[in-house]
Every structure is written in C-alpha cells, then in structure tokens.
Amino acid sequence: DIQMTQSPSSLSASVGDRVTITCRASQSISNYLNWYQQKPGTAPRLLIYSASSLQRGVPSRFSGSGSGTDFTLTINSLQPEDFATYYCHQGYNTPQTFGQGTKVEIK
Amino acid sequence: EVQLVESGGVVVQPGGSLRLSCATSGFTFKDYTMHWVRQPPGKGLEWVSLISWDAGSAYYIDSVKGRFTISRDNSKSSLYLEMHSLRIDDTGLYYCAKGFYGYSSADHWGQGTLVTVSS
Question: Is pLDDT of A82 > 90?
C-alpha cells in the first residue's frame, strides 16, 4: 500500500498568513494527488485534484503543486473560514490512501 | 444540485451484519465511479471501497476484503455497502462519495451515516 505522510500534523497561524502543508508518498504517484478540507461535523470538500487543479468554486488563494512523491498545498492569505483539517489523498492505485491530516488552528 | 444521502447506520454487536445505502440525485449516476470512505470518531479519513460505473470493477481496503461488498443499482441511482462479520474497529462515520476524474478523486460527498460496533 502507498503510505501518505503529511507534515505538520498541526499548525497555528493568523489571518492573513501564508500556510504550506506538505504530503509525501511512499512511492511515485505521478500527479494523482488530491487535497480535501474538512471542518468539524461536516463532510470533506475537494479543494485540489490532479496535484494542482483547483476544483470549481474553490477560492484562488488555495493552490497545489508537486508530482511524483512530494506535494504541497499552499493557502495564501489565510481567512477565518480556512481553519479546518486538511487531508492529502492518493488516487493512483488501490487501496487509495489518505494522509493523517493537518489541523490548521487560529494563533 | 448534486446530493448524496447515506442511511442504514446503527449500533450493532461484533460479528453482526449491516447494509448501508446511499441515495443520489442531481447527476447521471450511471456514468460515475462511486466510493465509500469512513472516519472513526475523532480520527482521520480511511478509503474503504470503490465501484466502477458499470459495477464491472470493485476494490477494497485489505481489512474489509471478504467481509464487505460494494454494489450499485443504476436504475435507482443508489450505492450500497453490505457489511458482515463486523468488528469494533469498523466503527465510524461512513461517507459515500461521487467519483471524479475516473477512479482517482471524489468531488461530492454525503453527510455520512454512523456505524457503531459495540457489545
């Protein structure tokens, strides 16, 4: 199985900050990497697919990059509604796997 | 508007069985891969299973192989997960999700149905 390792597990940031979350795959997954946002009590929301494609309706302050084994989610100018947990997810093969999540908290 | 509504989650004893359902609307169900993803209380997301648009292919996480069966009824725009020999570590919120970009991602999710395996 492909292991997905996110870092950090949590971070504290202020409104307006630039936030970067990384995800590393245990083997190459090409660009089959997605990013989801989850707020407490709600379902995950797709933010980025195919490593760098912004899902329709997602604000442009979210961006993704990377290929192979190393990937990054960047949030430019963090907004109050961005405080949530973020998961990377590989859809390269089955079993599909998620990272352990990164909780973004208010500083 | 795309909608997915899961049902069937209950409290069940270890070794028991359960069938989850996911009723969908707002998209052409028969054209899309569908997924089940679960989330134990207070923990992260775990992909469980997917089924191709025509039910010709199905895949599972190792821990549920031989115990869970994913299926779909395209005439009813519905997805199912048949669960047997349930274990305590199967406890969690089970989401159904609509596939996006083939098998590789999921763009719409239901609100989840809670399965609790407890004696």
Answer: yes
